[in-house]
Design brief:
heterodimer, A: 113 residues, mainly beta, 6-stranded mixed beta sheet, 4-stranded antiparallel beta sheet, B: 115 residues, 11 strands, 0% helix
Amino acid sequence: AQSVTQLDSHVSVSEGTPVLLRCNYSSSYSPSLFWYVQHPNKGLQLLLKYTSAATLVKGINGFEAEFKKSETSFHLTKPSAHMSDAAEYFCVVSDLDDYKLSFGAGTTVTVRA
Amino acid sequence: GAGVSQTPSNKVTEKGKYVELRCDPISGHTALYWYRQSLGQGPEFLIYFQGTGAADDSGLPNDRFFAVRPEGSVSTLKIQRTERGDSAVYLCASSLGTAVEETQYFGPGTRLLVL
């Protein structure tokens, strides 16, 4: 069975500074990994996904994540935070060819002006 | 184009009552999923439809929960004899197919409060 652990429940950054959201996963097989973002009163939106291709994955809005099998990690980064990045971020795993998504508990990002 | 829509956006009910939550997937998406998100947690899988049939209902917590998709499009999640522990946000998602390359697109959710 697959699972993810998001290491930070809350991250606060200043506008214009880097953002790092940490995620470790556990999977029995070759995993697929995703990051979703949830803005208040909006649906979950896919930021990026890793499905056994390039280990450095670029997503929307300047986010990227690196799959590190040796560390079982899939951390999300952005070089410069924007006020609009304030939201809840979920790291998600599924086993290869499995439609079920297993979500982490989420990381709340606040951006200070 | 139109995304996944869910109605109602909020539902308040009393313990013991019956509720129905509706999901309109993106047109042409054959796969539909229901997830439940409790306060402070990530969404948890409930059930998956491929077309009209429930291909996997292993996430439904008990037999008070039931979901249908009679024409392979709109789906309804039904909860009988609601309990306070059922309070959560119920999310619906749809995708073109079930391959992992197919992105699941989520609706805004229905926030259910059982008093």
